[in-house]
Amino acid sequence: MIGVAGLLASGDLLVAASDIDDGKIDLRNHRGPGRLLHLARDFSPRGALWTGVEGLVVGVAIAPDGTIWTADPTGRAVVRFDPAGQRLGPPPGLPDRPWGTVLPRPDGRILLAVHSRRGPAPADAMGGALLLELVGGRLARTFAPTSDGGRSGWHAITSLAPGPGEETGEETLLHLAEGGRTIGVFDLTAAADRAPLLVFAETALAVLLVIGAGLMAKSFRHLL
Questions:
Q1: What's the whole-model pTM score?
Q2: Residue 115: what pLDDT?
Q3: What does 68-120 look like in DSSP terms, one character per residue?
């Protein structure tokens, strides 16, 4: 992660690692004090940032101005830190949602994605939209990418990344839901879905999960 003046040196890492009591784990509702671990490039500990929210931080990103953003869907919170690590709190007027993914853009805009959705859409200005754009820290636009719901059926957008087309002036996003079979493409300029990048068959997804688990285990053994 790129160094930020006042807190992070070049090569330092911030890892979302809420302080979960491992003696009382409930896989249906795992939560604890929200935390980011600050590690040096050799993985030695340098400190921690605490969000002040009881939940599970899953999204973390650094904006071009050095602000550190966290998203906690369990605690339904977005907490920011300044470049020196001082907690700033949420942006003003942010709708109440289980936010889980943060994607800063080079021009300073911030994209926040809804992690999960259950029940009817809230009766507010955002409604059933799954993606929100902040400009200057304030709500600018909302978008409604199509999500396949993931394996559970109620996940929305759990991963978000820049998509192809920036070299031609287009702005697209790649998104997926946890355990889902679709890598979706959303055109921010047109505010519309594009054809998916990939759609995996159920059997193909199972094979990919097994291969991925094997590669992770092999990498872990190599580190040991």
A1: 0.83
A2: 96
A3: EEEEETTTTEEEEE-TTS-EEEPPTT-----EEEEEE-TTS-EEEEE-B--SS
